[in-house]
Amino acid sequence: MTDKITNWTGADDAMVESAIRRGASRRELLKMLLAGGAAVAAGSVVLGRATNAVAATPVSGGTFKAAGWSSSNADTLDPAKASLSTDYVRCCSLYNRLTFLDKDGVTQMELAESFDSKDAKAWTVKLRKGVTFHDGKDLTADDVVFSLKRHLDPAIGSKVAKIAAQMTGFKAVDKSTVEITLADPNADLPTILALHHFMIVADGTTDFSKGNGTGAFVLQTFEPGVRSVVTKNKNYWKSGKPYLDSFEFIAISDDSARVNALLSGDINFAAAINPRAMKLIGGQQGFELSKTTSGNYTDLNIRLDMDPGSKADFVAGMKYLVNREQIVKSALRGLGEIGNDQPVSPANVFHNPDVKPKAFDPDKAKFHFQKSGLLGQSIPVVASDAATSSIDMAVIIQAAGADIGMKLDVQRVPSDGYWDNYWLKAPVHFGNINPRPTPDILFSLLYASNAPWNESQYKSEKFDKMLIEARGSLDQAKRKEIYGQMQAMVSEEAGTIIPAYISNVDALSSKVKGLEANPLGGMMGYAMAEYLWLEA
């Protein structure tokens, strides 16, 4: 008997794949293969190949049900006001952006065909033709101008008003051309407009309850704080998408309840699983875990303008005292990647891998603490459940300090009021930062001398000048070099310690296919509904 197949063609492969999609059993498939002249061993090879092909080939149809972790009566379908993951997921299903970030963090065109500029200050945007809103209206330049200008109106309450403020001029040149003028050059404009809030809505929209966008799905039901149901947009401009017939999204705040809903078959997807709740999934058949590391982190902030942070050796000592490997293993239960004390994560195309994290070295830490004159003194460290895993991190750092005679007094404070009363204020405290798509946004928000969230009060004229230079340059290689230097400066000079980039873990049915990582966050940057399919 031979393992070779006689007269087997691509059409025969297609026949087997079709049978798999219809739900044929393995025995039935092997009978089919044997009838076609395949030996048993060869038949198994063909069957494996066909099964893999089916799994990788999108299938149309089905209802996808997913649960997030947060919602409120303030849930909105107005992209400008979106503030929770539930808002982002719904807006991504109903609307499109001018651009989007792919899995590698590269900016791709969506509603825009092109972005062009000679000076990074005046931009010309060409729009795709043939795109329509759910109500049948054609997409035009007026829709784009209206959508972007909304963010500048204080009455709207846009969550990205400060970012949008750099856009000072808008002009609809013709139906498919928009000119955008910035106050100062910014080469990141195409990437900035990939943020969830910059979805394009129809000109003049004031009522967002219908979710009238150009997106992959059409709104059927929206109950703020409860659920939303959307159905396939049969006139969607992206050929072949979406694959799903409908998508229902709810929120279940309790981790265990969210996992149980998945295991019981009530939902296909449970977002952002707590490591402790992961045990409920265990080795159960038919379910999977998806890990995404996109730049979220919890950091220890030491204010450089206050004692003890005003003593450089104290800051240096703390950086050597942080056992990053143990924090990932214990505090994060393995769900993280080692951080190097700067905010641009490995998920970002501008990440500088040559900036190495400080090694855990208690002897060096003790040397610097002694030099600072603080060894043996009690130093308050404020932590809270409000900052993800910060209490566990603080206890690990405290124990390492105790071994060398450094007394760190971990003060656990309530989540309620933490961000108003302690974050940015306490001399030594923890923060938690969500992913941002560009180094410019991260540095402008967190490290520029006038940054609104300057957690350690880091100030450097050189850094500020480099930030402006990189922002205005259209030379990507030059920008990468500058941002690489800035990452090194922050890692060495700022009072922020970023032990790890935290991984998000989603749990899903094995029948859910097409899920990929995205630098904008979990659930494929909250845009998963357009790209997923359900295995037949």
Automatic annotation (TrEMBL):
Q: Which Gene3D superfamilies match?
A: Dipeptide-binding Protein, Domain 1, Dipeptide-binding Protein, Domain 3, Periplasmic binding protein-like II
UniProt subcellular location: Periplasm
What's an example GO cellular component term for this entry? ATP-binding cassette (ABC) transporter complex
Sorted keywords for this record are: Signal, Transport
- Write down the InterPro entries for this protein, in alphabetical order: Peptide/Ni-bd (IPR030678), SBP_5 (IPR039424), SBP_5_dom (IPR000914), TAT_signal (IPR006311)
Tell me which Gene Ontology terms the entry assigns under biological process.
peptide transport
User: Which Pfam families would you find in this protein's record?
Assistant: SBP_bac_5
Give the superkingdom in one word.
Bacteria
Any one GO MF annotation of this record:
peptide transmembrane transporter activity
Domain Solute-binding protein family span(s) in chain numbering = 109-451
What family is it from?
Answer: Belongs to the bacterial solute-binding protein 5 family.
Quote the PANTHER family the UniProt record gives: OLIGOPEPTIDE-BINDING PROTEIN APPA, PERIPLASMIC BINDING COMPONENT OF ABC TRANSPORTER
* Name of this protein: ABC transporter substrate-binding protein
Which organism was this protein described from? Mesorhizobium helmanticense
